[in-house]
Amino acid sequence: MARARSPGMKLLFVALVGVALIVPLLMVYGLVSDRQHQARIAQDSIAAGWAGPQIISGPVLVIPYEEQRVTTEVVNGQSVTRSVKVRDELFLAPEGQAVSTTIDPEVKERAIYKSVIYTAKVKGNASFVLPDDLSRFGVERGQLMLDEAQIRLGMSDPRGLQTDSQMILDGKELALKPGNGLNASGGAGVHAYLDWAAAEPLELEWSYSLRGSRALTLVPRGKATQWQVNSSWPHPSFAGSFLPGEGDQQIGNDGFSAKWAISNLALGQSMLMKSDPGMPVVPDTGMEPMPFYSNFAERPSDGQSMAATIRLVEPVDLYSRVDRAVKYGFLFIGFTFLAFLMFDVVAGASVAAAEYLLTGAGLILFFVLLLAFAEMIGFAAAYALASFAIIGLLTAYSAAVLGSWKRAQVIGAILIGLYALIYVLLNLEAWSLLIGSVMLFIALASVMYATRKIDWSSVTSRKGEGEITT
After folding, report:
1. CA 389, CA 161: separation in Å to the nearest integer?
2. What's the rounded Cα separation, in Å, for the pair 64 and 310?
3. How confident is the model over 246-260, as pLDDT tens digits?
4. Of 274, 291, 314, which residue sits at a domain end?
5. Mean pLDDT throughout 376-386?
6. Counting Cβ atoms within 10 Å, is residue 63 exposed (0-12), middle (13-18) or buried (19+)?
7. Rounded CA gap, 205 and 165, in Å?
8. What is the arithmetic mean of pLDDT over 3-21?
9. Three-state secondary structure call for residue 413
């Protein structure tokens, strides 16, 4: 029995099949997200017995003081004004500090998942001077309780502290005590008491070893902060409110080094404050790429600290790359369907809707294979293996659908070129939009040229083998 369809109806059927494939494509996208979430959980479990991403801050000299405050209370229906003595704290930042950090990384594995952990050796020195203009801050010298001053260091996960922590003030070692850290590190950290009744300038040195995972963040304090970092990890990512300049970072196969120079003018903070700034907006330290702060939208709000972050990233984040590959899914489906449609409309090969569906299912299966193999053998090898399997499958199937091995070879060549081009796009993020746009333009121009003489509303019917009538 003859089948009659206009080219326009064939195009409509192909479009409907393509729309129907949205559902399985979205399911694959959800599968990638689920596997990424599982990897994140595995990473967190690896870090659970070690330490999480660390935020370090300080040192800050905390000076308690007393002041009289007037309060008003309602007693028996009448307002009663009272003067009460209240104890509060001043937070004095250093005149200058220099911090050097050496990060010793290690890759830990659990099942098929990996996480980067590290031990950071932190050393620094700072100087403190009591301001002469205390009255400008609403505090008089006589209110200060200098004999009860504290020096505080902050680290967001003190579980990572090792036994070599020490703090030396003017040549004398201070006794470190747990807790009572800084808000910038979530209130965690260590502190030491000192008697500063003489109010003479102080010279402080400190050092400690700190375990952490995936990222290290420094919250700078003081008039000038110098931070020098060295590590054997060859794949760092710098983020946060401050980035090292091009001339201040060296990255190679044997590791990286970087340095920052940050002033309190850039921080927008006074040397003496009555409140301790809160935690910074730290970029994500999980599996997803870390966002950078924009000039305004991502800038920390009032009450938050600014910080510099180093993330120890994997050289290939396979989940983000598979995720990007899935987003190109409709290019795979669209170009392959377009080739079938051209053979159908121009060359007279009849392709049924079910055959489009099976071809689309094979194209979507590629992403499942890519994800499964990438977790075991890496992204590049998985991409080659999955594309080889799908290209072979669809080329053989095309020979049966199109009735010719020559036509199937054309489909195979298109698929090879398409998979190769998508791989290039996945590796050239900066050029991906340009290359993709040019590719779409060329494809559209080719289709327009091939179908320029087709009457899309005419009806064609196949009456016999190799015979097409209108």
Report:
1. 50
2. 34
3. 889 999 889 999 999
4. 314
5. 88
6. buried
7. 11
8. 71
9. helix
Supply φ then ψ for residue 224, to 5 degrees. -150, 130
**Can you give the C-alpha Rg of the chain in angstroms?**
33
Using CA of residue 260, residue 263, residue 266, residue 267, what is the dihedral sign? positive
User: Which one of 314, 342, 373 terminates a domain?
Assistant: 314
Question: Above 90 in pLDDT, residue 94?
Answer: yes
Q: Which of 437, 422, 408 is nearest to 367 (CA)?
A: 422
Exposure letters 93-116 (e unless 16+ CB within 10 A, then b): bbbbbebbbbbebeebeeeebebb
Tokens 């003067």 label which residue?
83
- CB atoms < 10 A from the CB of 1, how many? 2
Regarding pTM above 0.90, the answer is no
In 76-198, the DSSP E strands lie at 78-92, 96-110, 113-128, 149-155, 166-169, 172-174, 177-178, 189-194
Task: Say yes or no: 164 and 268 in one domain.
Answer: yes
Q: Strand 460-464's sheet: what is its strand order?
A: 4-5, 460-464, 467-469
**Sign of torsion over alpha carbons 28, 33, 38, 42:** positive
Residue 217 tokens, joined: 């963040």
**pLDDT tens-place string over residues 315-327:** 656 787 888 888 7
Least trusted range by pLDDT, from 114-128, 171-185, 262-276, 277-291: 277-291
308 & 325 share domain? no
Residues 172 and 229 grouped into a single domain:
yes
Give pLDDT tens digits for 452-462.
666 656 654 44
Asked whether the predicted pLDDT for residue 146 surpasses 60, the reply is yes
Q: Do 300 and 427 reside in the same domain of the chain?
A: no
